[in-house]
Amino acid sequence: MQQPAIWPFVPGSEPVYVARAEGAYLYLTDGRKILDAAGGCIVSNIGHGVVEVADAVRDALVNCTFIMPPWLTPEREALVNELRAHWLPPHLTRIHLASGGSEANEAAIKMAIQYHAGLGAPQRTVILTRSISYHGTTITTAAASGHPERKKGLEGILATYPQIQTPYPLRCPVGTDDALATQYYLDDLEQTIETIGADNIAALIAEPLNGSSGGAIAPPAGYWDGVQLILKQHGILLIMDEVMTGFGRTGLKFGSDHYGIKPDLLVAGKGLAGGYAPIAGVFGTDAVAEAIAAGGFSVMFHTFGALPQACAAATSVLQILRRDDLIERAKTRGNQLKAALIERLSQHPRVAEIRGTGLLIAVEVVADRETLTPFDQSLRVTDQIIGHGMSQGVFFYPGGTGEIRDIICMGPAFIIDDDDIQLTVDALSYALDALVDLENPAT
Question: Who's near 158: CB < 8 A, 6+ residues apart?
């Protein structure tokens, strides 16, 4: 009898076996060297194998392996000081640490609801979400995500969260003019609030620019100014999900910085420790923390939240990002990669749009670029592109939600060089050319 696959829990195709990784490259057991143009899942920022970070983790492990999350250790203190001194916006003074983005987003949702309860409005429990989004894999965050593909088989247990439309300039129903598009999406927000009743709504959770679920979609000009004004008028908190866009990925410290966003709660992970440890943070205002305290509530920790060695890894990664000016490098290399993709592929018959900010870049692939008709889902075009890319020595990240599909994402480590950029463009060009003669069945 054939033995079952040992990994993962539900096997699909033969898993990629990575023997080791160094810098921006993966080395497979079959001898191949693969440029990780995805940064794993848009995680790696300083690259693999930095001994300085490993030494910091080792020292933390020796010093204190596990300490109750609410207690203070030198490693936790160092990370809090690093964040406050060099990273967080001045209005975000409170820090809660979790093990990953799903935990952190769920914690932020709880905090928003507790905030209103602490102010005497316990009925304000509704969390607004957006139509194209991904906030995590817990029952709550999966339900709150606009990501049908990752809800399959769970529909019977997931609550329904009211969704506003995610700004999607390429496919905006009123056209691509910024002013018209912005007004269209703001009207949608206002109408949704009116339907639900502002007094029932706790918060809106959203990304500053869309992550991999839509593929680096940036909102039209004026969108976030208008959203913040509407939320403030109605006393609705803003939870900014920067799990993917935080800590330099977009060429600034946070994606929010591109749009003048001042959230009540900001969630960030992935780049916080660059893949060296599982850690994410919820960063909030004094007002949110004080309302929760006034209500006599607590913010419950997860067992492995703020693990000392994870804090040590994060502090080391953040210091390296600052010391080596890697955020500016992410901006420069991102502009270079995007420009190279546009020059090579903007007129490709299968490319609808090349978009992105910093080193969060995506290419939207379609069957017909004039009508923006997607390929039928049964063709698994994204899988085909990733397979062709791997054959050329580059790994791309699959984006989309199932309904929004064939989004090829790039989020490499900030240390990539000219040769890496050329390899990335060549590999994607090869993969797209393989689709030119692909026929699209009726959709």
Answer: 139, 142, 143, 151
